[in-house]
Amino acid sequence: MAITFEHVTHIYQPDGPLAYQGLTDVSFTIDKGSFTAIIGQTGSGKSTLVQHMNALLKPTKGIIKIGNRTITPETKNKHLKPLRQKVGMVFQFPEQQLFAETILDDISFGPQNFGMDETTAHKIALQMLELVHLPTSIAEKSPFDLSGGQMRRVAIAGVLASQPEVLILDEPTAGLDPRGHKELMDLFAQLNQEGTTIILISHQMEDVAQYAQQVLVMDQARLVSDDTPQVIFNDAEFLNKHNLLQPESTQFARELERKGFKFSSLPITEEQLVKQLLPQLGGSHG
């Protein structure tokens, strides 16, 4: 499911004295089946942007196309429920949104809310537990008896249970240990390989470099760049201007350049760094 913004502006409280712009004349396209990252400083407009993608917010000006559906300032809210089934959103710290008495009920709530019968919803809920690497034996337990990392997996399973075509992730690994972080990112990469369009808000530049094919950079409610991670993370002047960091591999490569090492293009992942370093060190894989 492709997503296109055409000159989208969003003004909060447009008729009041506290009116301010959350988005200003934003245009871009996210291709179906892609993995897109959205980066920028806190308050740059990232969350406002993604809330337009499942119609939690509507544009004040401009047009949004999501699949075969078009959203304008005039679009009625009652027409947007089917879209929200297709575009799932995992908010930051999603475990705070758990509410049901059992894990099974929590995960199956979304599908039932969209009209699925209870038996089918429970069957899908069990499949989602396995997908997020939790045993189905916990299904009848309270979600509040789980660890923080397990609660987050249950919350993510609840979004996945509605089988969205697009999955929006707002800092999904915030606060997790390195193992939990990697397991979740690998899960999102797997979903992407199976055809789900992934949209990731992140301050982890290593994740952006490792997983994303497209990067949208927001600053002061404007889209200031739409390019590949390789191009964006090789432009140190642009990153400095917008108060963004390069991935650790890129920072390390820049230090090595000062010591005489040569790079055809600055590496942005560990894999790229090793590939360019080995020949200069006289080594090889083996």
Give an account of the 3D structure.
The protein is an alpha/beta fold. It folds into two domains: 244 residues, P-loop containing nucleotide triphosphate hydrolases (Rossmann fold, 3-Layer(aba) Sandwich), CATH 3.40.50; 40 residues, no CATH class. Helices cover 37% and strands 21% of the residues. The chain is built from eleven helices and ten strands. A six-stranded mixed sheet has the order 6-7-8-3-9-10. It has a four-stranded antiparallel sheet with strand order 2-1-4-5, with no helix packed on it. Strand 7, helix 6 and strand 8 form a beta-alpha-beta unit. Helix 3 crosses helix 4 and helix 4 packs across helix 5. The longest helix is centred in the middle third of the chain and has 16 residues. The mean pLDDT is 93. It is a peripheral membrane protein. This is Energy-coupling factor transporter ATP-binding protein EcfA2. Forms a stable energy-coupling factor (ECF) transporter complex composed of 2 membrane-embedded substrate-binding proteins (S component), 2 ATP-binding proteins (A component) and 2 transmembrane proteins (T component).
CATH topology of the largest domain: Rossmann fold
Domains (count): 2
CATH architectural label of the largest domain: 3-Layer(aba) Sandwich
Number of helices: 11
* Oligomeric state, counting identical vs distinct chains: single chain
The CATH class of the largest domain turns out to be: Alpha Beta
Shape: globular
Trace the largest sheet across and list its strands: 6-7-8-3-9-10
**How far apart are the termini?**
41 Å
Mean pLDDT: 93
Q: CATH homologous superfamily of the largest domain, by name?
A: P-loop containing nucleotide triphosphate hydrolases
